[in-house]
Amino acid sequence: MKARLSIAALALVALVAAGCGSSSSSSSSSSSNTAAASSSGSSSGNCAAAIGLEAPITGSAAPLGTEQLHFAQLAVAKDNAANGTKITLVQGDTQLMPAQATTVTQQFISNSKIVGVVGPAGSQEVEAVGPLFGRAGVGFISGSATAAALTTGKNPTFFRVVSNDSVQGPQDAHYIVTHLHPKALMIVDDQEAYSTGLVSAMLPVFKQAGISVDHESVNQKTTDFSSLVSKVSPQTSVVVLPWQLAVNAQQFGRNLAEQHKNAVIVGTDGLFSPGTFSINGSYVSSFGPDITALPADAAIAAAAKAKYGTFGTFGPPVYAATHVINEAIASVCKSGQTPSRSNVLAAIRQTNQPTSILGHPIKFASNGELVGGKFFLFKINSKGKYVLIPNA
Amino acid sequence: MHKFVQEVVNGLTTGSLYALIALGYSMVYGILKLLNFAHGDVYMIGAYIGYFVIQWFGGPAAVSIPVPLLLLIMFLLAGLGCGGLGVAMERFAYRPLRDAPRIAPLITALGLSFFLENAALLLFGGQFRLYNTPEFISFNTGIHIGAIQIDIVRIMVIVLSVVLMIALTLLVDRTKLGKQMRAVAADREAAEMLGINVNYTIAATFFIGSALAGVAGVMAGLVFNQVTNTIGFLAGLKAFTAAVVGGIGSIPGAMLGGLVIGMAESFITGYVSSTYSNLIVFGILIAVMLVRPSGLLGRVQLQKV
Q1: pLDDT in tens, A75-112
Q2: What is the pLDDT of residue B301?
Q3: CA A85 to chain CA centroid, nearest Å
Q4: Distance between CA atoms of residues B265 and A146, nearest Å
Q5: What ranges make up the beta strands (E) of A139-277?
Q6: How far apart are CA B183 and CA B199, in angstroms?
Q7: Is pLDDT at A332 greater than 50 in this prediction?
Q8: Which chain B residues are closer than 8 Å to A276 by Cβ?
Q9: What is the distance in angstroms between the Cα of B302 and the nearest Cα belonging to chain A?
Q10: Is A12 an 8 Å CB contact of chain B?
């Protein structure tokens, strides 16, 4: 019995040690980035603060979450070097789940060093954490939460650097109607706020155009779409998948191929994942541009690629969001104050950047909405490359 | 007509997977009266083993050995690996609690499920691992009659599942081990008094049930392409439902329950709406429980007082 207990205790200790090792190494990695950056800054000063990052670093959306983490780390390092600040990044893994995001948010709120937060990634998460951040007076900026309802007053300290679904949904739907000319289409939501919001924004456009619409719904954990694909009739030439998980859309595309069906997939932001979603002829609309095609972003794109490899469109908006908070902290310090939640929040509200990594200015309306943002549409070619469709 | 056939094939594929996983739930419950909630995670580990075998042999686009041999190795290693995992789980997590109140092993099973899920996260990372099956088994192989398209992988899954279920039935009905398993399930103490090695029999039951789940994990990877540390939860839940619908503790019941759930899912999605799929599937569970609390093929347990 004693031997058994010893083995169990040893296993437990090993697991805890492994877990702690993993977490401490990741946090020290981000700290070392920022420390190195601050030491190379023009003037070190005493402008020290911490910002939180809420992203799905593990779980089903880990590919986009790790990209967001990498770009946040890049922004902190670059801005520390440029502004002479000592900003550190505290990571919070939400796994794209509102419950987990709530737990992380409570931890951030109880950490008095955190004066602003980047994220969370999903609209459903913002819905869950917005009131908490609002009560604590913490400004938070998402680089990917696009549900239109998020800026209607429930989340007073929420901002985003991307446009909302009321822009994207109708824009995508109009493109489908005018360029793909379907007589019938299938639209499938993934039962999350992001997805259902986009579907609600698209349906009126399809109905007005007289298109026969089969609206379906699947859970994000679904991995077999063969029965759903068998409902795709010969008249159904377009399948719209406003999903967050590219891997599921790839499987949907494979099920289409398996049943020798030729409907074109049109997806939204979550499907922008060149390594994962590569169904030839599909369309993907995204809140972020392909920054590798923007000359002004060449240095950042090269640095990101050298350090982290290929990336999609989820990282750059988080870079922009992190940059907004970094600049807000720097401006507070320049005015002679110590960064706090309230003065950083006030500085975020005053943001007026004439240009950004996203190729457009960043300025917020009084409800936290980005002023003058837009969406980008890409078509996937036979090599799996995402080609921007100009003026789509 | 072709849509009906397509739905039958879809239903048989997912139903076969549920049935293979449900067998493990049912066998363990039959012999120990334990709901092994970690069983879905054993299936997840099997799917990972299959993925790593593909990588070891050059990856999906450049498999260095004949595909049938690759598949054989995937199934064998997943079966053996998961079987071994099942035996280890029984030995270190459940056996010490065999005479404890029933709530204790139940909670341990839940804890073990989280342990396996998070151990996989720690070891393999949170990202999806993709089998990319079409890169080494073409969609063009299989049965194509008019509009009916049946992929070779689905045919393989259905045939292999049927073979495994027949083999298990023969093992339980006609071998010495099967007789021992039935004896232990009927009355563990009496079986022990008759000289049956109860520990060995229970370990063998865990091995067989877990091996079937491991094979199901590889099949799922081949058909659904994606593996991550959380896939065991939903599959395990559906398989558990299948085991209960069929009559938990009954091996033919687990097979029938798996097929009922798989076919129901497929036909509801194909002919009604995917939106209501889970609602109706779990509605079936409630309806069966109301009409036949012991499940479709389960036997009413008499309580000895």
Answers
A1: 999 999 999 999 999 999 998 899 999 999 999 999 99
A2: 59
A3: 26
A4: 32
A5: 139-142, 158-160, 184-189, 212-217, 236-241, 264-267
A6: 13
A7: yes
A8: 128, 130
A9: 35
A10: no
Please check the confidence at residue B188 and state whether its pLDDT lies above 80: yes
ipTM above 0.85, yes or no: no
Do B231 and A223 make contact, defined as CB atoms within 8 angstroms?
yes
Work out the minimum CA distance from B270 to partner chain A, whole angstroms: 5
Q: Do B92 and A19 touch (CB under 8 A)?
A: no
Helix axes of A315-334 and A298-308: crossing angle, nearest 10 degrees: 110
Task: Supply angle C-alpha B256, B257, B261, rounded to 5.
Answer: 120
pLDDT exceeds 90 at position A150: yes
* A349-360 pLDDT per residue, tens: 999 999 999 988
At A2 the pLDDT is 46
Q: What pLDDT was estimated at residue A68?
A: 95
Residue type, A52: G
Which positions in chain B touch A18 (Cβ < 8 Å)? 122
Rg of chain A, C-alpha, whole Å: 22
Is residue B7 within 8 A of residue B270, CB to CB? The reply is yes
Of B7, B134, B234, Cβ closest to residue A221: B234
Tokens of B168: 């298990």
pTM score: 0.75
Residue that the structure tokens 């799905």 belong to: A56
Q: In Å, how far is A231's CA from the nearest CA of chain B?
A: 6
3-state SS assignment for residue A49: strand
Q: Is the CB of B275 less than 8 angstroms away from the CB of A217?
A: yes
User: Residue A3: pLDDT above 90?
Assistant: no
- Tell me the two tokens of residue B295: 């499940």
A254 touches chain B (CB under 8 A): yes
Beta bridge partner(s), residue A117 = A52, A140
> B198-234 as b/e, with b when 16 or more CB fall inside 10 Å?
beebbbbbbbbbbbbbbbbbbbbbbbbbbbbbbbbbe
Residue A62 at interface with chain B, using a CB cutoff of 8 Å: yes
CB A157 within 8 A of CB A211: no
> Contact, B49 vs B214, CB < 8 A?
yes
Q: By the 8 A CB rule, do A147 and A164 touch?
A: yes
Residues in chain B, total: 305
Instruction: Kindly tell me the number of DSSP H helices and DSSP E strands found in chain B.
Output: 11, 4
Task: Please state the rounded mean pLDDT for residues A193-222.
Answer: 91
* B130 close to B47: Cβ distance less than 8 angstroms: no
> How much is the pLDDT for B304?
53
Triad A331, A335, A341: Cα angle to 5°: 60
Interchain CB contact of A113 with B (< 8 Å): no
Classify A289 in phi/psi space as left (phi over 0), alpha (psi -120 to 50) or beta: beta
Contacts of A58 in chain B (CB under 8 A): 121, 125-126
User: In this prediction, what percent of chain B has a pLDDT beyond 90?
Assistant: 64
Q: Where are the beta strands (DSSP E) in chain B?
A: 129-130, 142-145, 148-151, 226-227
